[in-house]
Predict the structure.
Amino acid sequence: MTPLTFARAEHEVRNTAFRDDIVVREIPAPTGLAPDTLALAGDIRPEVEGIDSPYGSGRFILLHDAEEPAQWEGAWRIVCFAQAPLESEIGTDPLLADVAWSWLMDALDSRGALYHSVSGTATKTLSKGFGSLADEGDGAQIELRASWSPSGSIVPHVEAWAELVCMLAGLPPGSEGIAVLGARRSPRG
């Protein structure tokens, strides 16, 4: 099997098809993380292109370093971020962070993505407005940050990330085209 080059990985990522519920675009990659980088932003049904969606959004960063950093245990690393607003009652669920993490693992596994050296955090945030923000009410948000070292094709990893962003926004696989009634939290985030 021919080793994956960064140019081939870029081509694969840029030609990945996504479900209609998520709009994915290439964004400038952070500098200083690796010699070769590619970054994507994904937004669930954005109202305005380039603005984070009120339903959920995410970032996907592909890193390549032929020097194979020890903590990566290879030449490739993926860093991802996904967040979505929640109803306040859901935000208080003690298992919410565990469920969000399991959705990422399930998405990777269901796509047949090969990976190792996984790490990350799942954070739930509750907020309450005061003063001039009191009218916006209570809010909650789930945020997942993860990284792992991929093996083989990068496409299943990108697809799993997009699935995760949709899942956090309340759009599980098979729900393409289902109406979203409104943002599940106030606009303040």
Notes: The mean pLDDT is 86. Residues 6-168 form one domain. The longest helix spans residues 96-110. The chain has one domain: 6-168.
